[in-house]
Amino acid sequence: MPLHIETPLIESHSISRRVGQSIWLKMESAQPSGSFKTRGIGYACEEYLKRGAKRFIASSGGNAGLAVAFAGRRLSVPVIVIVPETASKRAVNLMCLENAEVIVQGKSLDEAHRFALSLMQPADAYIHPFDDPLIWRGHASLIDEIFRAGLKPDAIVLSVGGGGLLCGVIEGLKRNGGADIPVIAVETEGADSYGKSLNAGFLIELANISSIATTLGARIVCEQALAYSREHCIQSVVLPDRIAVSASLQFLQDHGIVVEPACGVALAAVYEKVAALSGYKTVLVIVCGGVGSTADHLVELSRLECDAI
Questions:
Q1: Which DSSP helix (H) or strand (E) runs through 239?
Q2: Are strands 79-83 and 183-188 parallel, antiparallel or unpaired?
Q3: CATH number of the domain that residue 57 is part of
Q4: Residues 115 and 143 in one domain
Q5: Which of 150, 218, 267, 280 has its CA 20 to 30 A from that of 186?
């Protein structure tokens, strides 16, 4: 039995009325670890266990590490997660509750990643947050569920951090006859390594992450995410932090569910009626979830963003 669940697919009446389009939501926030990461990481962990792994080691800004911790507990495999100093205390506490050993190391995800690799032993499996074909294959199951439900949207909106979800979605579209469905890839300013890479035509590595959406904080995306842009219609949208926070708060009001700004930025593309979505009748938003925020935290972020204007 897979570690992920089949998540709700719902049409949002409130958002649809607001924007004048049929807006569907794939509620990955309902996954056991609180985000879509359970799909790909759960699948990868099961595969590595079959190959003889005795311990999982991961580096993460929060959600990926929690997914590994969850998978390790379910599979009875020890887990070590290396998190950067930017990781939220809430995410770290949740990993500990899943019986993972959590080590805070480095100011960025890249530094945490390098430290994690230094711990590797022959019987360990390193679970990358996003750059692994096994993870993409697991994420693709999300699209299988959508097509099984009979929905073929005119466009799909998703957040991009390192590109793992994007790669999984496109893999899923290809195997379900949806290669003609465009993908709107949304990032926050200051964490827009994918948008910059699309514009340049080659991978761009950011000097640092300045966005509050720290779980989108990959300074460089995976190569496959850029490669897919050469064979699939992918449009980049980059929005400011304050719009992402505002969308998370609006979504809480509309649906009573807390999502991080890293997820809220995908919803913001719909709420803000970005040009990339004009002309589409039926739009699917992947509500990727995330456990780094609470309602109080979102309100505080909103206040800070307003003060900064």
A1: strand 234-239
A2: unpaired
A3: 3.40.50.1100
A4: no
A5: 150
Residue 120 burial (CB count, 10 A): 13
> Over the chain, what is the mean pLDDT?
94
- What's the predicted TM-score (pTM) here? 0.95
User: Does 211 map to a domain?
Assistant: yes
Q: Is 119 helix (H, G, I), strand (E, B) or coil?
A: coil
Q: Which amino acid is at 199?
A: N
Q: How many domains does the chain have?
A: 2
pLDDT in tens, 138-178: 999 999 999 999 999 999 999 999 999 999 999 999 999 99
- The residue from 77, 96, 131 where one domain ends is 131
pLDDT in tens, 78-101: 999 999 887 888 889 999 999 999
* 3 within domain boundaries: no
- Same domain for 95 and 200? no
**Distance set, CA 102 to CA 59, 109, 183, 206 (Å):** 10, 14, 35, 26
Q: Domain containing 74: what range? A: 37-131
DSSP β-ladder status, 183-188 and 55-59: unpaired
155 and 21 both lie in a single domain = yes
Nearest 5°: CA angle at 141, between 293 and 151? 95
**90: region left, alpha or beta (phi > 0 left; psi from -120 to 50 alpha):** alpha
107 versus 238: the higher-pLDDT residue is: 238
